[in-house]
Amino acid sequence: MAIELRKNTVLSNDNKKTFKAIIVLNEMINGTHQFSSNAYGDDSVLQPLFTDLVAKGYVITRDSTYQVSSKGRGIFDTFMKRYTEYLKVYDVFSFVDLEKGEFAFDRYFDFDTDDAWFDYTNDERFDDLRIAVAMFKKTDPAEIVFMSFINENRFDTASAGWQNELVSEDAWREIEEICNTAIKPDEVGEDAMVDMINQGSELMIRLMEEEQKQNNNNSNYGGGGTTTTTTVVEEETVEYYQPYYDPYYISPIWLVPLFLW
Q: In what helix (H) or strand (E) does residue 222 lie, and over which residues does it extend?
C-alpha cells in the first residue's frame, strides 16, 4: 500500500464551524453557562453559529435560551467517542525516538510526578508522530490537533472573552501550521510507519492492561464491592482496542460525519 502524498492542510469554513460547535456544545452540556437566544455581551459573536445550529436542528430555543437537541447530543457523543480513542490510540505516538525505535510512553509508569515525566519527554530525541499516524490511517489530521488543543485546555470557556478567541482565526491558523510542519508518513517511509504503529499499538494495550491492574489493586485495597464490575468494564475496553493491532485499522466512528452544514 503506497503512502499517499498530501497537500497542505487548509481548514474550510465548515471545518472551523464544526470545531467551534463542539466547544459550544460541550459548554452547553457540561458547563454552567446559559446562552440566551437574545444574544448580548460576549455571547453576541456566537450568534451566527447558533443560527446555523438551530437551522440544522442541533440546537433548539426554549424559554429564551438555547438548548442542545437530541440530534446535537448524538453528534457530541460521537465526537467524545473519537476523543476517547484519540487519548488511547494517538497519544502514545506523541514522543517517539525514530532512530532507536523507542517510545517515551514505554516508561510512563516509571515516573511518580508530572514534572519528572515532562522533563523526560522534553528530550529533543523524541518526535511527535501523531499527525503522521493520522494521515497514514487516512483520518483528518486537523481533528487530531484540535483534540490535542482540547486536552491542553486551549479553549478555556472559564476565562473571560473566550467567545472572541473562539471566533478569531488564531487557533485555526495554528492548527493548519502544526499539520503542515509536522512529520509526514512519506518522510518516515511505509515499512517504518507500519513497524512504528505496530509497536505503538502493542504498547497502548500494555499501558491499558497496566492501568487496569493498578485500578484493580486500588479497588481491592479499598475493600469495596465494585471490583468485579470495574474489571469487566476495563477488560471490555482493552478488547475494544485490539483491532488496532492492524496498523491500517481505523474505528468506524471516525468515518461518520459529525455536523452536516
A: helix 190-222
Burial grade of 39 (CB within 10 A; 0-12, 13-18, 19 or more): middle
261's grid cell = 452544514
Give 201-217 pLDDT, tens digit per residue: 999 999 999 988 888 87
3-state secondary structure of 127: strand
pTM for this one?
A: 0.89
Question: Cell match 433548539: residue?
Answer: 60
Nearest to 29 by CA among 61, 77, 62: 77
Distance CA 90, CA 126 (A): 15
Pairwise CA distance, residues 242 & 32, whole Å:
37
* pLDDT single digits (tens) 128-166: 999 999 999 999 999 999 999 999 999 999 999 999 999
41: cell is 455581551
Amino acid found at 88:
K
Which cell numbers hold the place of 171?
Answer: 487557533
Long-range contacts: 154-160, Cβ < 8 Å, 24+? Answer: 155/23, 157/23, 157/26, 157/27, 157/31, 157/33, 160/42
Sequence-ordered strand ranges (E) for the chain? 59-62, 65-68, 96-97, 102-103
CA distances from 248 to 1, 148, 187, 201, 232 (A): 10, 22, 18, 11, 28
Residue-by-residue DSSP string for 49-110: HHHHHHHTTSEEEETTEEEE-HHHHHHHHHHHHHHHHIIIIIGGGSSEETTTTEEGGGGGGG
CA–CA separation, 183 and 202 (whole Å): 22
Look up residue 199 and give its three cell numbers. 509497536
